[in-house]
Amino acid sequence: MYQWILAFHIIAVIAWMAGMLYLPRLFVYHCAAEPGSVQSETFKVMERRLLRGIINPAMFLAFALGLWLGWLGPDSHYGWFASGWLQAKIVLVLALAGLHGFMARWMAAFGRDQNRHSAKFYRIINEIPAALMVVIVLLVVLKPF
Known about the structure:
Layout: H1 2-31, H2 38-71, H3 84-111, H4 119-125, H5 127-142
């Protein structure tokens, strides 16, 4: 059973990360669109569908399956939760979830034609999920502590 849960957790994480890497790129391009234009309205639809149809469900599944995996870990009382690497991973995943929340807020601002950030801002933001992902994967694979 553990292997199945792990497989679906990895699939959910891949979907979540794909969306977290793509949404800020949409914001970069959306910045160049004139508010109210056909192009801007198209970006609004794309962003909303990406967030609600892929990113949100994938994050929920990644969290649920990840917590289940943590519970099923080697220690029958605490699972993996007593491991330092998992505690560090959880902090980083919560940071990623916080960024997810900011992206939802920025998407809502675009939806109201009230974006206050530049394309450069979103280009920088686009690097944060990738950096967090690298550290999280290293923690999971290497289990350094």
